User: What shape does this take?
Amino acid sequence: MTTGQALPLRPGQQGPLTGLVVLDCSMVWAGPYCTKLLGDLGATIIKIEANRQLDSIRGSAIPPPSSSPLSLYAGNDPGIDPWNRNGYFNKYNRNKLGVCMNILMPEGRAVFMELAAIADVVVENFGGGVFERMGYGYDVIRGVNEDVIFVSMPPSGNGGPEAKYVGYGVAIEQLGGIVARTGYLGDDTPMKTGINYGDPIAGMHTASYIMTALMHRRKSGRGQYIDLSQREATINWTGESVLAYQMTGQDPEWIGNRDAYMAPSGTYRCAGDDAWIALAVGSDAEWRGLCTALARADLLTQYPTHDLRAEHHDAIDAAISAWTAPRDADEAMTTLQQHGVAAGVCADNRRVVNDPHLNARGFWPEVQHSSVGPHIIAGEAWNYSRTPAAIYAAAPALGEHTEYVLREVLGKSDEEIAGLHAAGVIENTPEVILEQRARAQA
Amino acid sequence: MEGPLTGTRVVDLSQYIAGPYCGRVLAGFGADVIKVEPPDGDPVRRWGPFTDATPNPETGALHLYLNQGKRSVTLDLHTEDGCAVLRELLATADVLIESDRPGALADLGFGYDQLKEEFPALLYVSVTPFGQTGPYAQYHAWEITTYALSGLMYITGEPDREPLKNGGYLGQYGAGQNAYIATLAGLWERAASGLGQHVDVSVFEHATSLLEMTDMAYIYAGQVYPRTGNGSRAAWGIYPCADGFVGVVSGPLRRWANVATLMEEPILSDSRYQQANSQSELRDEIDALMLPWLITHDKEEIYQRAQALGLPFGYVATPADLFKNEQLEYREFFHTVDHPVAGTLRYPSVAAHFSDGLWESHRAPLLGEHTDEVVESLGHDAASRARLSAAGAFGGAPSDAGVRKGGTR
Assistant: This one.
């Protein structure tokens, strides 16, 4: 059983899940997305990393000179510790404690099992069966923590003919039915999403199911093995299309930015480089608002019903574009919203970071990173009135909290910690860097 | 079956997609979710497609999926009696989910600040496009609006064409999923403190939080991130095949030789091509070597054969494909559910197997199907229910009650 309540909270750590302890053995995006959500709600997340194989979103320990045209390193500078300065990693691992430890060595295994014994939740996202072959299956963890909630999240679930299949988010969004619904009107090829959507969908489902299992444990006293399928999670977000197919026998159609129940619906060019506004009209009242904003009473008379608007969509699009083309996208949004039209700027990442609404709501809090310094970071979709959650700490540098966790969580002495160092179990520098230094000295 | 949320009562006033999806998951795990609808129903009931190609408030695909496992009560909140019944219902509730324009429920006496004294343990969950505060709070939004503002749309589609919205309602579903997590975290905390609170969930903020790392590209390096269509990396992306489209994902590098094996094209194993794998150089050359094999093979076969070689391929699955996949069949992911009007359909269920088996799939309710039994359970005998009905509490009020305003989702 957990001793989570006894764990010290870090400065600023707060929210509805304080006291919960999650042992996080996941990497890249889907698993860390899940534990990010729980950590942002106040849970203590202990992320286990290895210096032999870095989490791939830390980037290479020694990055090639032009690895990416869009640098994610702070200030475009990999610095002397590029693995600590990658924005991708630093986004998804804030609020987590970072422990760098070799859990395949016997002494490392012993420490890991001590942590497993006090965790409420253990999360892993290795390929099907890999964590178990490392000696850490559900049964092993349960041996030291009977009511643990253990999560495994391979692409298509454990068991079955595809249990060992490998998958990246880019393929999961295809297998889960999202891509088949996305494409420009009239095109002959579907379009991928702008992100690898399968990963965060899997992460959100996993966090949902962990919370469910915790509520179950509270009632029943029993832990749980959760065997998540990333593909199934993605299908759940397009569930109505599965029913629609059974009703119509039709595959999904690509309709671009149009809409089956709203007309007009689309994206319209505004003044400036690659500037656009999106809007959809879902009712006659909104249509009246749009025609008023455009000063086009003639359109209101001509197309009073949804069916007429859908039929004459091209003509209406032309009228909207004529109005938006000379206008600033933000000013157009303000005007249209004043008339009750659901219009929004197609924001690029710069506008999103500067968005007045997000900033007014405190969506971009600042954290202090040990290598990068202060930087802002995206918040979460929720706000609690009585137990506000917080983003209080930047992502850990590799192994930043190894000693803290050994000392404050497991009560290890300086002597014991020195012993683990000497044995090579804990080491906060990537192995390839150590080897490079050794070669330079030789 | 006793589910993890059995004994938890949820009053679900939310409409359209995000809030109702949260309610669907709560119901699947055992909560008693009472969907309170205006007399003419949640407007999502008017969105198709419908089972027999005829609009019917009971047979729309979104309604059937999103309202699975709930009970339906119709209340006209423009009548005093309708409001009185809602207040009685809230006295029995652990959670309220709502999706109205901020302030709209307060106009009816059901704002959070108005309820917290009387119902201190109530978890009041609002799921709205922009949240309860801030300059856009009163803005109107549909899926495309918040998707555009979040930055997700700008990075979807071809660089020389307009930004593209993803098909479906991913922003709404995601906000609903976040609302579920937030609701359970609120209930978890409540079990210790005995107190409810207001949880303010925003679709816009959810969608923004999904920018994979493009927000960091600006924050860390001042980079404005463009759209790149289906990408420019060689052997990495969507390709045509005999019966649709496959996802060629040729990483990791050490497996490149397997791509040549799979496609029965030895020239591909040339080290020049291996180096180009997943970079943009030589893309056209590599495409020309892959396409002859791809367009003569079916997607499921390509997927299975690639995976057997350790390659993380996928394919662009249509709903028809999902029903043919053996893995989904093995895991019994689709549940067959009967509905008295819509008939028998196969529904997506829950995306995990639980060692304790926690999920059950049930059908969506008919509009107002449970009004009588729920109101009776609140202590109203037949005479009282008849009086409420005559007064228009459940709809059909003599005066023009109108549709509840707001309609944000």
In short: Chain B touches chain A through 145 residues (CB under 8 Å). Residues 69 and 362 of chain B are 5 Å apart (CA to CA). The first helix of chain B runs from residue 18 to 28. Chain B has a mean pLDDT of 93.
